[in-house]
Amino acid sequence: MAGPFPDLRDDGRAAILRASLARLEGNLGTAGATDRPHDTRVLIVDDQVVIVMLISRILESAGFRHVSGTSDPATAFERCERELPDLLILDLSMPPIDGVELLERLRPRERRPTPLAVLVVSGANRESEQAQRARAAGAGEVLEKPFTRARLVEAVHVVLGHPPGGA
Question: What CATH class is the domain 14-22+36-160?
């Protein structure tokens, strides 16, 4: 796939992905009070292509203009250095490197005046040991899968330090 997702891996489920995204687009809803355009640069890292695309579509529908993603966690370091995201949305369970390890290795390499905002998405309970490790490594919030559009957008605003109901 080209554009902001050059390194998404096609795992043979492209037709299913396209059909799922088409159904999801009908369920995204219209923009609301918290959905003003944002110059925030967002990088999504999840080994499941459908999750990368879903989060991207939700954020774009919420007014985020600079969203990119990868389903290959091995590219996350290089992408963070090249794209300098303001927000990293990161899955916890990804082969070959889990989200906590990726975050622990990424933090010392940061060259930013303010720390990178991190939202972790996980199938694990937000109070699990893995979620606690993610918070200790610098994640601002842990969002459980499955999540709703409203909950994702709310969590993004919380992690970015935006006031409720606005940018």
Answer: alpha beta
Beta strand extents in the chain (DSSP E only): 38-45, 64-70, 87-91, 117-122, 141-144
- Contacts for 138 with CB less than 8 Å, ≥ 6 apart: 103, 107, 115, 116, 118
> Residue 25, SS3?
helix
With the C-alpha atoms ordered 13, 146, 91, 75, is the resulting torsion angle positive or negative? positive
Query: CB burial class (10 A; 0-12, 13-18, 19+) of residue 52?
Result: buried
Nearest to 43 by CA among 52, 32, 33: 52
Q: What is the pLDDT of residues 20-66, one digit of tens each?
A: 555 554 444 443 434 455 789 999 999 999 999 999 999 999 999 99
- Which has more confidence, 93 or 67? 67
Which 3 state secondary structure label does DSSP give 88?
A: strand
Task: Domain ranges for the chain, please list them.
Answer: 14-22+36-160
> What b-and-e string marks burial along 69-95, b requiring 16 or more CB atoms within 10 Å of the CB?
bbbebeebeebbeeeebbbbbbbbbbe
- DSSP classification of residue 137: T
pTM of this prediction?
0.77
Give the pLDDT of residue 96.
Answer: 84
Max Cα distance, the chain (Å): 42
